Amino acid sequence: MKSLVSILLILFTVPVFAVPTTLSIVSTTETAALFADTAADTANGNQMRNNNCDLVLLLRNSHATNSSTVTVAAAASSFTIPGYGVLTKSNASVSLAAGEHKHIGPLPCVLWNDSNGFVQVTYSGTGTVLVTPIRVPR
């Protein structure tokens, strides 16, 4: 009886999936906007709502010796551009050596937004990544 209950519990247990941490976006202005670095959620990833299709990620590895890689997931593996046809879209990936600053973007909605309007970002490596998502109006 115990084994039957154990099997039933395994079969009917709802899996728990990691939810990326949502980051707030800094809007730029004519005068200096305060860029508040946020520590990357290296376990679950991060997501940012990209309503205006003008998102840029400022990235910094604050670790003294270790490197990291930041990857932004492409929303679709292919898309069509008039005059060019069907093109393949890969994820955007940036390597950050210790102490480096880089950016990814701008990230147009059609290429980077998932079905809920978020850009999904994951991290690998052992560096300490800090992220500042900003809007850069066109």
Structure description:
By secondary structure, the protein is mainly β. It has 2 helices and 12 strands; from the N terminus they run αββββββββββαββ. Strands 1-4-11-6-9 form a 5-stranded mixed sheet, with no helix packed on it. Strands 2, 3, 5, 10 and 12 form a 5-stranded mixed sheet that branches. The chain has helices spanning 2-12, 109-112, and strands at 21-22, 26-27, 38-39, 46-49, 55-61, 68-72, 78-81, 85-88, 92-96, 101-107, 118-125, 129-135. The protein has one domain. 21% of the residues are buried. The chain is 11% helix and 41% strand. The radius of gyration is 19 Å and the shape is globular. The termini are far apart.
Write a brief structural summary:
This protein is mainly beta and 138 residues long. It is built from 2 helices and 12 strands; from the N terminus they run H-E-E-E-E-E-E-E-E-E-E-H-E-E.
N/C terminus separation: 66 Å
How many domains in all? 1
Ranges where pLDDT stays below 50 over 5 or more residues in a row are none
How would you write the strand order of the largest sheet? 1-4-11-6-9
Question: What is the topological layout?
Answer:
Blueprint: H1 2-12, E1 21-22, E2 26-27, E3 38-39, E4 46-49, E5 55-61, E6 68-72, E7 78-81, E8 85-88, E9 92-96, E10 101-107, H2 109-112, E11 118-125, E12 129-135
Parallel strand pairs: 1-4, 2-12
Antiparallel strand pairs: 3-12, 4-11, 5-10, 5-12, 6-9, 6-11, 7-8
Key structural traits:
single chain; 138 residues; mainly beta; 5-stranded mixed beta sheet; 12 strands; 11% helix
